[in-house]
Amino acid sequence: MPAALAFIPRIPNSPDDYAKAHPDRVQSFPGSENEIIINPKLVVDNESHGGWRHELEHDTESVFWLLLYWAMVVQPKDRLKEMIHTESWNALNGNHEDRHWFIKKLSETTPSNLIHSSYKPLQPLIRDLAALLVIDRHWVPASDLRKNRYYITEAFQRLILQFIIDNRGKEFMNHRVETVFRKVDGTQASNAWSSTSIQSFDAANREGDIRVGCVCGPMNSCPFLLLCLQGTDDVEMDDIPNE
Prior knowledge:
globular; two-stranded antiparallel sheet
């Protein structure tokens, strides 16, 4: 069965205030490019690129996983308890192949119980950010602006900031949250601890294992998204020429 086509999204537009503050960035990445369609089978089969290496966009991808982890485990106060989608939780804590599958899935659809229903407005943001990560920039044509190593960081900033602007003042953004996380469906007393098989093996061989939950657990949506936005702005891009 042939692999499904993958889409690289168009360059997102810049919020007005952001455009005024960073005109050079807007000029470098004008929000006018069309989608790119790529057959992921070619990506899997072609190994002529010389192997994987760590790039700036992989650091930005960490922002996505942090945001997704928070969205999955957070339990709003005075709201019905809802369980975390088991398949999604296993993929989040699986190997790189599991996570790549997960990103692809999230770019297309969101499982109904991936996040608490009170945070349903977060789903489009999760989908849009995931869509940026489905295909590595190596496979983008050299002439395209999205080939630039700073593009993913720029796109994340625009999408997260626009989401904050569009949703500021809404109840879900400032609704207080519990300090206890949501539980995984079918797992007793999970408390949503993140634990891969390697981490579990390591913990079993250490004495006095102390599990520490995500420090962002008690944070409401608005300050947490601001934290994620700050995380994408660690590199100054204005004075760096395009590739």
